[in-house]
């Protein structure tokens, strides 16, 4: 036991004496969440839009009014023909145009609904998507109110957009669990895999293998300091999210902590697993980046919603641990869900964790080949 | 007159001082190296050898003193100095993932040789080494001995006035080491000055003259024969130990 | 106490070890001498149980490195070729770490490392990465010794270290040997062979000779001549062009030369060289050294390229 303890102590010293890396570890999550938060929260305020109203009836004026009063949009131009509208868009005078067809009000009462066109400046794809999302929400709500469709089953106004529907961009707080998933997997997996392969590269692993230390002791010793570090990171992101971006926290802190602990251990075991197949720090880093980072960003529902993916990618996303983490954190934080709501996600993560732990210990070589 | 003098001494170091903060790495070094001379530069780890070589190659500026290499001032005519020297170290020699000929072409081009000249010289060089048949093999597949011999030949491909060799023969088998020295003798006979550091003290005896550095100062500068006589030693190893071992 | 019989190991198509036989006795300072890539590290790692042999027998105090690797790992101390200490930990922390990991304390075995460690103790709070080459070497040796191993395995401990530190290091090994520790050490420096009790000369995975250093030299058959005078490069070429010359190698200020029938043709050579314009010639019969022997063994195995 004493051997394990000195090993953990030694590992912690490596971490704390490398002040540059340590700085990056703590500042990176902070920078990430501030960047994400800033980009998402500031873009959508007084967005410049133009209106091309072919109907000019009461309903179309009311919809325009709704858009303006939401605070998100500011109408800076009214067009009388298509060419004017396109010029304005091209010059960047407006970010989005709303096009009402003739007879808009009457069409809304028909069974097919009224067609409404939203033309967004897609050169800034993210902004365009958000603008369209916001406008869509506002217009739909108006439509349901007017037709008295409380169940919101029909769409009295058919909005014609050629961009992807992207609910995850609704607000900054939706991205906090995603950022946490990414940072934690990065810090945990990459740092542990690098710190183990560094010993291999350095030659000290040979001496450790010769020593009476057992494989599990080396693994636990490597991992323990990073558990703490990752926890601090998770807490930083949460605090910044809650204090600066007013992310709601409706659930149990204890449960949230437990979910994080499981996810951190899972990421660490992934890191160890990577180090058993990689022989150099560089290989370890690239595996971590490409095998963990990118799938986390692309397939976990962090940026691209899972329900919009083609089926094969949806199946693939089932295998992404961050998916289950993001899901459960969202449930706990936003919906205030308890253990009995998120037990399934937890169970999946624990299964992943055990699988990787077993694989790592089995794969850990007691020799050099 | 000056011209004639500078053609004799290709390296002139006059009261060179290099300080890092309070630490004096080179303490008033003065020496000259003649054209075509094989000049051994020895010293314990940390004696200031590496610092001095960096200054001679124009990679670092002297704190005080004047250093001329190939007739150029290393501090102010760095680019010209770099064109007149070749460099080879044990740590990095050639790119492992390029072929023999690709390496030659690369380094030839870096030193501004025309494609025709590179082809002509590399052919002669490879035939001389007996490596011509292997010119399309990857460097990584050659033995260490071949790599070192080839790296040396590449370092003098552009006919520099001086070639700096930093522990070129570490870990090489004794026969290959002899072959390496034959290449050095050949280069020196062709008028290239060879400036070499080594940990093999028996190799010091191959040099025309040897300096031994300790604590940033030059403790001795003589021919190996005279040094052995002066310190009454059988080998250069004993001379070295006498000079550098703390008393 | 270490016995290696017909050991073979290949990496892909490379024969790292090719039928190696070596016996190391108790309390012996045994040197494995050969250039880089000769197979020294591979041999050591197999003995240490870090690599698996392809075929052949290895026994370390009767234990098999494949089956009884735990037993072997408990009784060996190892200094790998690369500097294996933690550069960001201090001298003291490094030693303490290895002591604890090997299940002992600095206090318990201080007597073993005292002579060596005392020299670096004044710098015990300094990070290992900031030590000079010689001091790093002493620290690494202390760390390898701290658990009182029966067998000390040192892989090229003196490579890249200056001559002063090297000679100090060999003095330390002599002292350790006297305390009864068996030492297995590898080196590419031929001149260090004479400091060992017995040596194995190794080249391209094959053992060329195993004997005491004096016996190795005695194995050099025929006469060896030292030739000097005039420009080295031209002298080498001239000697090579003399019919009857077998080998010519520069050795410092002299050339070492043998004739094909290993006999004395120095008079004829002298005449030949004079005819080529060499006047200050000196040819003398000399005693071969380990390196001469190594090279003649290499050429008889037709190893060199």
UniProtKB/TrEMBL annotation, chain A:
One of its GO terms (cellular component) is plasma membrane. InterPro entries: ABC-2_transporter_component (IPR051449), ABC2_TM (IPR013525), ABC2_TM_bact-type (IPR047817). One of its GO terms (molecular function) is ABC-type transporter activity. The chain crosses the membrane at residues 21-40, 172-196, 223-245, 251-274, 286-306, 337-359. It is found in: Cell membrane. Residues 140-367 form the ABC transmembrane type-2 domain. Keywords: Cell membrane, Membrane, Transmembrane, Transmembrane helix, Transport. It is a multi-pass membrane protein. Coiled coil: none annotated. Belongs to the ABC-2 integral membrane protein family. PANTHER family: MEMBRANE COMPONENT OF ABC TRANSPORTER YHHJ-RELATED, MULTIDRUG ABC TRANSPORTER PERMEASE YBHS-RELATED. This is Multidrug ABC transporter permease. It comes from Marinilabilia rubra.
UniProtKB/TrEMBL annotation, chain B:
GO terms for molecular function: ATP binding; ATP hydrolysis activity. The keyword Aminoacyl-tRNA synthetase does not apply. Keywords: ATP-binding, Nucleotide-binding. Residues 11-240 form the ABC transporter domain. PANTHER family: ABC TRANSPORTER G FAMILY MEMBER 20 ISOFORM X1, ATP-BINDING CASSETTE, SUB-FAMILY H, MEMBER 1. This is ABC transporter.
From TrEMBL, chain C:
It holds the Pfam family ABC_tran. Signal peptide: none annotated. Residues 2-229 form the ABC transporter domain. The keyword Aminoacyl-tRNA synthetase does not apply. The keyword Ribonucleoprotein does not apply. It comes from the Bacteria. One of its GO terms (molecular function) is ATP binding. Keywords: ATP-binding, Nodulation, Nucleotide-binding, Transport. Belongs to the ABC transporter superfamily. PANTHER family: ABC TRANSPORTER ATP-BINDING PROTEIN, ABC TRANSPORTER ATP-BINDING PROTEIN NATA. This is ATPase. It comes from Marinilabilia rubra.
């Amino acid at each position: 036991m004493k051997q394990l303890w000195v090993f953990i102590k030694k590992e912690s010293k490596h971490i704390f004496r490398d002040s540059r890396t340590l700085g990056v570890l703590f500042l990176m999550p902070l920078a990430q969440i501030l960047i994400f938060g800033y980009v998402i929260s500031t873009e959508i305020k007084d967005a410049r839009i133009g209106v091309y109203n072919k109907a000019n009836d009461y309903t179309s004026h009311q919809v325009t009014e709704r858009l303006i009063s939401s605070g998100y949009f500011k109408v800076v131009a009214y067009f009388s023909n298509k060419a004017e509208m396109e010029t304005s868009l091209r010059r960047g005078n407006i970010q989005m145009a709303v096009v009402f067809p003739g007879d808009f009000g009457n069409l809304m009462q028909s069974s097919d609904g009224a067609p409404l066109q939203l033309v967004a400046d897609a050169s800034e794809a993210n902004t365009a998507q958000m603008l369209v999302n916001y406008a869509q929400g506002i217009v739909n709500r108006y439509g349901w109110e007017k037709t008295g469709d409380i169940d919101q089953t029909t769409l009295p106004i058919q909005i014609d957009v050629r961009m992807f529907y992207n609910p995850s961009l609704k607000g900054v707080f939706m991205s906090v669990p995603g950022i946490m998933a990414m940072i934690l997997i990065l810090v945990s997996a990459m740092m542990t895999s690098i710190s183990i392969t560094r010993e291999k590269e350095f030659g000290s692993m040979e001496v450790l293998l010769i020593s009476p230390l057992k494989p599990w002791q080396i693994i636990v010793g490597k991992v323990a300091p990073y558990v703490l570090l990752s926890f601090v990171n998770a807490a930083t992101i949460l605090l910044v999210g809650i204090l600066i971006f007013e992310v709601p926290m409706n659930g149990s802190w204890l449960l949230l902590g437990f979910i994080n602990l499981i996810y951190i251990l899972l990421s660490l075991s992934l890191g160890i697993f990577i180090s058993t197949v990689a022989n150099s720090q560089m290989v370890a880093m690239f595996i971590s980046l490409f095998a963990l980072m990118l799938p986390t960003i692309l397939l976990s529902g962090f940026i691209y919603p899972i329900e919009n993916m083609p089926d094969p990618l949806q199946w693939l996303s089932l295998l992404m641990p961050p998916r289950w983490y993001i899901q459960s954190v969202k449930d706990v934080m936003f919906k205030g869900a308890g253990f009995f709501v998120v037990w399934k996600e937890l169970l999946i993560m624990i299964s992943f964790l055990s699988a990787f732990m077993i694989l790592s210990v089995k794969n850990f070589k007691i020799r050099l080949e | 007159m000056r011209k004639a003098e500078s053609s004799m001494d290709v390296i002139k170091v006059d009261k060179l001082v290099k300080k890092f903060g309070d630490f004096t790495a080179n303490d008033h070094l003065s020496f000259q190296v003649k054209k075509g001379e094989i000049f051994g530069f020895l010293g314990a780890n940390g004696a200031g050898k590496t610092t001095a070589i960096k200054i001679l190659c124009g990679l670092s500026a002297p704190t005080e003193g004047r250093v001329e290499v190939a007739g150029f001032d290393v501090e102010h005519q760095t680019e010209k100095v770099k064109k007149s020297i070749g460099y080879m170290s044990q740590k990095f020699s050639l790119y492992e993932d390029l072929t023999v000929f690709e390496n030659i072409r690369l380094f030839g081009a870096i030193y501004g040789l025309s494609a025709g000249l590179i082809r002509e010289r590399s052919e002669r060089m490879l035939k001389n080494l007996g490596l011509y048949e292997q010119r399309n093999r990857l460097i990584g597949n050659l033995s260490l001995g071949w790599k070192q011999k080839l790296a040396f030949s590449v370092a003098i491909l552009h006919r520099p006035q001086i070639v700096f060799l930093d522990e070129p023969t570490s870990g090489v088998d004794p026969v290959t080491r002899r072959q390496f020295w034959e290449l050095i003798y050949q280069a020196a006979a062709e008028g290239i000055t060879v400036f070499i550091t080594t940990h093999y003290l028996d190799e010091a005896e191959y040099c025309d003259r040897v300096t031994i550095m300790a604590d940033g100062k030059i403790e001795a500068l003589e021919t190996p024969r005279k040094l052995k006589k002066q310190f009454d030693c059988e080998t250069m190893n004993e001379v070295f130990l006498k000079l550098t071992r703390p008393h | 106490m270490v016995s290696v019989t017909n050991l073979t190991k290949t990496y892909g198509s490379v024969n790292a070890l090719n039928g190696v036989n070596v016996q190391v006795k108790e309390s012996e300072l045994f040197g494995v001498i050969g250039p880089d890539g000769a197979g020294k590290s591979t041999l050591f790692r197999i003995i240490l149980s870090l690599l698996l042999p392809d075929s052949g027998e290895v026994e370390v105090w009767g234990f098999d490195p494949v089956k009884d690797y735990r037993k072997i790992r408990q009784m060996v101390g190892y200094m790998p070729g690369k500097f294996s200490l933690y550069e960001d930990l201090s001298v003291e922390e490094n030693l303490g770490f290895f002591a604890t990991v090997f299940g002992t304390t600095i206090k318990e075995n201080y007597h073993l490392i005292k002579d060596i460690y005392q020299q670096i103790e004044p710098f015990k709070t300094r990070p290992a990465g900031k030590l000079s080459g010689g001091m790093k070497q002493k620290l690494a040796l202390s760390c390898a010794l701290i658990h009182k191993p029966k067998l000390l395995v040192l892989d090229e401990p003196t490579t890249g270290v200056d001559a002063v530190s090297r000679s100090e290091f060999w003095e330390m090994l002599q002292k350790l040997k006297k305390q009864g520790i068996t030492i297995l050490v590898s080196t590419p420096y031929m001149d260090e062979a004479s400091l060992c009790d017995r040596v194995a000369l190794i080249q391209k995975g094959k053992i060329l000779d195993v004997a005491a250093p004096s016996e190795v030299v005695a194995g050099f058959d025929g006469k060896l001549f030292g030739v000097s005078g005039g420009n080295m490069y031209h002298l080498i070429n001239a000697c090579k062009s003399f019919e009857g010359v077998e080998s010519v190698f520069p050795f410092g200020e002299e050339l070492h030369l043998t004739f094909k029938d290993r006999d004395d043709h120095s008079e004829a050579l002298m005449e030949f060289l004079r005819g080529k314009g060499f006047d200050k010639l000196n040819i003398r019969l000399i005693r071969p050294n380990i390196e001469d022997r190594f090279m003649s063994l290499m050429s008889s195995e037709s190893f060199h390229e």
